[in-house]
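R.M. (postdoc): so does anyone remember the format we settled on? I'll just put the structure tokens first.
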């Protein structure tokens, strides 16, 4: 079985989204064109941003049907990331809160894709 290691988000404008994620992730895309950008993170995970109207075959899905998840060490790190992202102007969809899986909050990227930060709860 193959393990997925690459997610592509369909976006309104790849260069605009690439600038957003470059700032958020602290790294530049390894590939960038008017219709596509790709980041390769230190973990090896790849994030692609593809301009929605150029996707082949045409995409019919809606935004918000999934999440990019960022795991952090603990509830304090959740709070610190929330403060940082709020200062950067990210839209916050869910304030920091305790849930059954841990402490979490959810922000939105410029296209409305959900970005969840969480610290796992006690196992």
């Amino acid at each position: 079985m193959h393990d997925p290691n690459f997610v592509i988000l369909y976006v309104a404008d790849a260069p605009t989204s690439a600038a957003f994620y470059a700032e958020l992730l602290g790294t530049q895309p390894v590939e960038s064109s008017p219709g596509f950008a790709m980041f390769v993170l230190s973990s090896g995970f790849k994030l692609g941003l593809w301009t929605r109207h150029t996707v082949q075959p045409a995409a019919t899905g809606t935004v918000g049907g999934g999440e990019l998840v960022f795991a952090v060490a603990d509830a304090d790190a959740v709070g610190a990331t929330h403060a940082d992202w709020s200062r950067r102007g990210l839209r916050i969809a869910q304030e920091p809160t305790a849930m059954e899986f841990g402490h979490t909050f959810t922000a939105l990227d410029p296209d409305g894709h959900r970005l969840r930060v969480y610290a796992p709860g006690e196992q």
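R.M.: ...and that's the designed sequence above, right after the tokens. Also worth knowing: The first helix runs from residue 14 to 25. The mean pLDDT is 93.
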